[in-house]
Amino acid sequence: MGGLTPLILFRTRDPGTVNDLLLQQPAGFTFDQSRLREADAVVFHIPEWTYWRPTFQDTPKFPGQLWIAYSMESKVNYKELADQEFMRHFDLRMTYEQDADIWTPYLPSHSTWLSIKRSSIPKKTESHPTALFRSDPIDRSGRNAFAAALMRYTMVDSYGKFLKNRSVAEPDVGSSTKLTVIGRYHFYLALENSIAPDYVTEKIFDALLAGTVPIYRGAPNFREFVPEGSFIDATTFNGPKSLAEYLHHLVENPTDYAAYFAWRHKPLLPSLLEKTARIELEPFIRLQRIVTKALKERRRQHYEIPHYPFGLFAAIKARLRPIKARVRKLRWH
């Protein structure tokens, strides 16, 4: 370990998958794969295993080096996260799950919640009550069928690639444009792509940030992550028709609809405050501190011989893969 700051390497073929999260992080992180031997810790972005498994199987692990499994994606979508045999190769887990060593939820910070409470509720100017932004093709929750069924009983303006019937009129500058559009609707369909405990993504938080009411379908324990009374739980209705009837009732009864914003005038629940306190520091700063503490307890010698956690055969196969690809290319020419 050099100095007081550990060197943390991202073992990735696509720095863009994590680069945004590192824009304002301290020194000590690198994407330079040639520094693998000297790295004090190596972070593997687990979703990449689905596509580039052979690329990473030849990774040697040096004595004293920490390996971190990182993912904000559902373990339903990426089976490696639920595979105990696979996960035993890692020293630390950095995921959306609350029992992770470094917890990385989509949950907004305490200051963001206070900002939401202070903000005004946008006027609901759209003629249809509900909006949907949906382009991600992954669907292991039945959300496609649910959204299509709901649209048979109530009008939903669907942006994005899925069931598209509406386009953003204003210049699209990303997240801020999306939130502006959502805020003009009474409701926003916040449908997760898979159902798993703790997997509560930005969808429900986007609605609350935008100043509208989320219709949520996803994690069974999602209520732990949002203010009480701020959402509509789609699973409590006897099907899409029953839900649509309730939405129409709320639009026609402003007082009942306004009740979904009463949470803004109350203190946040202690359980939610406890969660925001856990994420006060950015996740990669928390990772850096954990690695620093671990390395103080064991001194690394960079000359020591590494081993191959995924097996020597897998490592050799991975090393031969690009050679075979070049040979095939030469044959074609």
Structural overview:
The structure is a single chain. The chain is α/β, with parallel strands linked by helices. The chain has helices spanning 16-19, 49-56, 84-87, 110-118, 143-150, 175-183, 202-210, 240-252, 254-258, 270-278, 283-296, 312-332, and strands at 8-11, 29-30, 41-45, 66-71, 92-95, 102-103, 130-133, 156-159, 187-191, 213-217, 232-233. The strands form 2 sheets. The protein has a 6-stranded parallel β-sheet. It has a 5-stranded parallel β-sheet with strand order 8-7-9-10-11, sandwiched between helices. Strand 7 (130-133), helix 5 and strand 8 (156-159) form a beta-alpha-beta unit. Helix 5 crosses helix 8. The termini are far apart.
Task: Report the CATH superfamily of the largest domain.
Answer: Glycosyl transferase family 10, C-terminal domain
What's the CATH architecture of the largest domain? 3-Layer(aba) Sandwich
**What's the number of structural domains?**
2
Low-confidence segments: none
Strand/helix succession: EHEEHEHEEHEHEHEHEEHHHHH
The overall strand count is: 11
CATH third-tier fold name of the largest domain: Rossmann fold
**Oligomeric state, counting identical vs distinct chains:** single chain
Q: Name the strands of the widest sheet in spatial order.
A: 2-1-3-4-5-6
Secondary structural class: alpha/beta
Can you summarize the main beta sheet? 6 strands, parallel
Q: Considering DSSP H and I runs of 4 or more, what fraction of the residues is helical?
A: 25-40%
* Gap between N and C termini: 47 Å
| Cα gyration radius (Å) | 23 Å
The tally of helices reads: 12
Share of residues in strands: 5-15%
CATH level 1 name of the largest domain = Alpha Beta
Mean pLDDT, all residues = 89
Shape: elongated
